[in-house]
Every structure is written in C-alpha cells, then in structure tokens.
Predict the 3D structure of the following.
Amino acid sequence: MTRYLLAGGGTAGHVNPLLAVADKIRDREPDAIIFVLGTAEGLEARLVPERGYELLTVPRLVFPRRLNGAALRFPSRFRESVAAVRAILVERDIDVLVGFGGYVSGPAYRAAKLENLAIAVHEANTRPGIANRLGARYTRQVGIAFRATRLRHAQFVGMPLRREIESLNRAASRAEAVRFFGLDPHRPVLLVTGGSQGALSINETIWASAASILGAGWQLLHIAGARWERSQSQLDGYRILQYCDRMDLALAATDLAVARAGAATVSEFSALGVPAVYVPLPIGNGEQRLNARESIEAGGAILVENADFTKTWVESTLVDLLQDRARVAGMAARTSAIGVLDGADRMVDLVAAAVSGTPPTSEVR
C-alpha cells in the first residue's frame, strides 16, 4: 500500500491537474492512501475535501522576486515551512511526494529530499515556476504539459485532465449539448470564455460585436463570469451564462472558441480538437502567450493581443475566419494532432517510476 502526498494549490491551474492525478491513482490502486498538501486560503481548501481527499495545510509562503523586508525574512520562513512539511511526511508515513507547483511545493520538495523520499514533479505552464525549478533538481521524474517547456529532466506527459474532459466524445455529445444550452443544432457555435472569473475586455468586445458574429451565420455561447453585469441579450442566437458547470457540454457544442490562454484551457482545447482564438492575459510574465505557441505554430489557433482585440478586429479578421468553414475545420484537425487526452495516465506512470526507482525513458532537451 503506497502512501502519497500531492502538493500544490492556490489556483485552478494547480489544483485541477493535482486532482486528476489523485483520481487516476485511486483508480489504479484502490488501497492507496492519498493526502493533499495545500494552504487554507487557496482553491484547494474547497475543492480537495469535496473530492474526498484529506487536505493538510501549511502557511502560504511566496517566493520573493525583489529585495525587500519579505525577502530578508524568507530564509527563516522557508526553513520553518520545510520543518512543518517534514513533520507531516514522518507522521503520515509518506512514500512519495508529487508536486504541481504553487506556494507549498517548494518547501515540500526540500522536505522530501531531506527525508530521502521519491519525488515526481508536474509543470503545467510553458514557463516553469520557481518551486518546480527547485523540485526538478531533486528528481528525474519531471512531467511537463507543453513540449516547449525547458526544465531539468523534463519528459512530455501533457496536462492531466478532468475526468469529464478526458472521457468526452464531442461528436457523440453534440446533440445533447445544443439541447442543454438551447442552441440551434444547424448553426455553428462560437464559444467565448475568459475563465471562471471572466475577462472584462473580451466580454465587452464580444457584446459590442455580437450582431456581426451572428450575421456570419454563427451563434454565440458566451460564458462571461460572475463579475460581468450583463446577463442576457435580445439578439437571437446569443446565449450568455455567468457561470457554466458543464464545460464538457460547452466544449461538445463548440466549433471555434475565443479565450484566454491559461495552461488548462489550451490543453483541453488541443486534446479535444477545439480550434481557438487566444487573447492572452495582458499582465503577468507572458506565460499565456507561451502556452498558446505550440497550437498556433501547428495551425490550430491564432493569437491576438488583448489591446488589439477590438470591435474592429472582430468585425474584420474574426468574421472573415467564421465565414471560412473549411479553414476552421482544418484548424480543428491540426490542434487535435498535438493534443493529449491521457495526460493523467502518463503522469501517474511517471509517479510509479519514481516510487520504483525506474530510470526515465526519455527527456525533452
């Protein structure tokens, strides 16, 4: 019976692949003991217990990016976090640590190294985080979601996907999907989403351009986020949702998507063959642009900068694309060719190799 500690959290980008791997471990080893290490403030505080796993928490510790008071206090706080995680590893008799990045993973990697435990790492973004760069120094079992990621000992596994996405047959589910959302089964669907919180600039541009999109013969399924004030439109074929708890059906209905380029979004679209227009988040370290690069280079997506995603751009460039159904179909085929549906299985294989001490089969150079 193997005892696992899966470390990660803070955002859905860390929590969802963690839970996908946990579920896959449980499928393969019904007697496995699985704990999750996170913080009391992150998304994991709600999602992990809901999925039936025990959440163990340590204080949130942010790696400093500039020299200030927090940076001076960081070494002692890091040692305290490492000590706290080591106590958990010993108390729970953990056999292997699986890290997904985020605030808790750095101390967890160091603690597992000091306890001489097996370690596996999964990096979801093209640009690795600080914690996973540390973890990759301690193990050769390092899985990456994007082939372009540069990380020590990296092996391409893809993104561990949610079960409902991994098992989705888009063609078989399309009829159910259009009924579920009240869509016309005879018209193509443009999905617009800015993630769970929405994206104000995308929302406003689509709202202003909706008539042109509908005039191109398409219909709109717009998942706007809870913070957007507009909740309905008088235009026939324009469906607005503030939240969607059936993203599997939304993707089954979709012929083309407009979205941010978060790692999970890009991975799910590619795995399911959903062509996309990516509008990367204009803040941060540019990782969303990098996440979308492989799909763009393959011809399965196009990228437009947030500042350029305007009503004028939609009514010219996007509408031209919508009117070229052959091009859209070709984009779908090309993005599907680079997508991976079995990322969770591949990552669990990597974890099993870490436990058994098996050398990695290949690495991304």
